[in-house]
Amino acid sequence: MAENIGTIFEWLVFLGMAFGSVMASFLLITRKNPIHSALFLVLNFLCVAVLYLLLSSQFIAIVQVVVYAGAIVMLIVFVIMLLDLENELRSRFKIVYSKAIGAFLALLFLLGILYSVVAKSPTGKVGSAYTPENVNANVKAVGQMLFTQYLFPFEIISVLLVAAIIGAVILSKKRT
Amino acid sequence: MWVVPAIPPALYLMLSGVLFTIGVIGALTRRNAIVVFMCIELMLNAVNLTFVTLSRALQSLDGVLFAFFVMAVAAAEAAVGLAIFVMIYRSRETINLDEINLLKW
Question: What is the model's pTM?
């Protein structure tokens, strides 16, 4: 029984976080106030970060909290407050045929995903990256891989970020 | 002796599919551009969960690095996209997607 306790706890955390993330994303798409949507987005990101911890990827969990829940949602909330959306709160979520058809197609898409997940287990070359010492030093392992094997994409990403900064500044500059 | 099995990766993949579909439905049915943008972030997040799950299932760190790159691209996209929203709001006084149907005005 003693060796089962850890697994049972993992199951409990997984089920709780799965329920939390699905509920948060459902509330995200149904709330009328965009600020509420942004806060439920934060809740969803935090639940998924806990799932990353369960998958023993500490690095990506921390980056998820810092970059997604911190930086991106902060930007979104800032822009929502910058724009005056007061008059758009009403007359939303009317049932329109095109939207009903879109939602129906999305549900069909979900059925396709579920079938593909159940029908075949993932195949591929199995490596040996998750040794116990690598799991305990996940950040070190990811950093080593990032700065050796993935160095060139890393540099490309930095160029992309500089381009995005310049683009954002130019776009939001006041034309005079 | 009854042993509880570990969480199978298929459950994580199903959860990520559900989150992605909720994001798709939100992006198709909402009219506020910022909410649609948040739904797109939700979809990117679901795909990240798939990457990390398969990275764990296949014992390879490449999936984690791909999730990292997706996050970096999402950050760049957030900066540019929100700047575009501010610009559209300045010229049209609305970011309702049903009323934004021209690329140039």
Answer: 0.89
